[in-house]
Amino acid sequence: MLSVTTRSAAETAALGRRLGELLQPGDFVALTGELGAGKTQFARGVALGLAVDPAQPVTSPTYTLMNVYHGRCPFYHFDLYRLAGDDDAAELGFSEYFHGDGVCLVEWAERLISEMPAERLTVSFHHAGDDLRRIEFAASGDRYRELANTLFDRR
Amino acid sequence: MLVLAIESSCDETAAAVVRDGREILSSVVYSQVAVHAEYGGVVPEIASRRHLEAIVPVISEALAKGSVALADIEGIAVTQGPGLVGALLVGISTAKALAYARRLPLVGIHHIEGHLLAVLLEHQVEFPFIALAVSGGHTHIYRVDGFARYVTLGQTLDDAAGEAFDKVAKLLGLSYPGGMEIDRLAVSGDPRAVRFPRPLLHDGTFNFSFSGLKTAVLNHLRQYPVPPTGVRLNDICASFQTAVCEILTHKACAAAAATGIGRVVVAGGVACNSGLRRAMSELAVTAGLELHFPSPGLCSDNAAMIAVPGDFYLEHRITSNRELDALPTWPLDTMATRLKGA
């Protein structure tokens, strides 16, 4: 488990951006953590790293469940906050996007854990006092271990 | 024209019969909010199934309440997007089947277009006007130059205002959906008790940001060992609501001033919020603006509002063909392309 502490929303977004720059089509990133922990800030950074037009606002997909952006590859931004159960998420057909032509990033991934690809990068966000956030990276699968190592080597 | 309108883009299954885009003969809304509250959130399978179960009874009831037969209907308008595909498809499939069976013209409508024009069901409002559209999924300011002619002036860069209300309500331990509960408790609270930030208030744009405000509430709550109750809870609700309303009203009035358009319409579910109605009314008086709110029943999702643009398009023979499909994302500014060749 690799961990880093950010001191502001901007730092959290910058960390997301560095990850975004390394992501490739088919990659899957799961975000977990409480309200206000920085998940959407991080997602905004990932979008920038994927060369999504900075003028395009990366808004919360809480009500839409998913927003799509077009950077150097499609960026599928999911948010499962409004979902109640784990089993019913299959009804949304989310898995059709996984392993596809773009990058998938899922906020509130803990609500869909049984549907997640086994190989993925899981990023968990924790409040660490005031504006401090502890952000942990857990990689499963060779591709994601390499990704996490590259991300931390670059820091 | 006598139009049957159908709406199923989110939590409501709704149908309405409206004459000439102005006179509501009936408007029936079946809400799933209570169903979702039971589960603490949306269960997509249940949501789509409930729409499916409700759609035909809701349409039958709309026809019966309007004292019209299906044979009297001259055109059909249905919400085509944006929204959840599974939910949208229930309304769209039903509308297509009815249109095909009765050989009626059919047009797909943008959900937000309905919200912006709902006010015309109750008031004479001249174009152009500035519209502040605020709901769970939207916080946008538009310039409305006429039917199908909408220009986005600003929007939220992160959370929508309604979403901020619901998420702060969750932080405060209030029941789902929490926006109305905050409004209710805010009435007895002191809006100056906690000084929450007003993000982007004076940035010179018409954009919004509510994510930082949500985090400010969270940081405030973390200073205390126990969740707020009583007076302290009311004060936080009042302080938070005042911050949101101040930002919304300031930006709407700034858009009116910058465009020289003296008419403002506030639409969408959050337009029901009593604090927003009061703050907007006060500021409109000071700024000398003509202000319109739809009545609460027309602010929340309904089908009557879909009939307003629906009637316009159908009268101008702007229709959708049988390939009409759900559009989960659909920029409102592109609506003007429909006017070409009409």
Low-confidence stretches of chain A: none
> What is the overall shape of chain B?
globular
List the domain count of chain B as a whole number: 2
The CATH class of the largest domain in chain B turns out to be Alpha Beta
Name the chain pair with the biggest interface and residue counts per chain: A-B, 29 and 38 residues
- Strand tally of chain B: 10
Strand content bin of chain B: 15-25%
Strand content of the residues of chain A, in percent? 25-35%
State the order of secondary-structure elements of chain A, H for helix, E for strand: EHEHEEEEEH
List low-pLDDT spans of chain B. none
State the fourth-level CATH superfamily of the largest domain in chain B: ATPase, nucleotide binding domain
**Any idea what the radius of gyration of chain B is?**
20 Å
Major β-sheet strand ordering of chain B: 3-2-1-4-5
Got a strand count of chain A? 7
The level of helicity of chain B is 40-55%
- Helix run count of chain A: 3
Integer-rounded radius of gyration of chain A: 14 Å
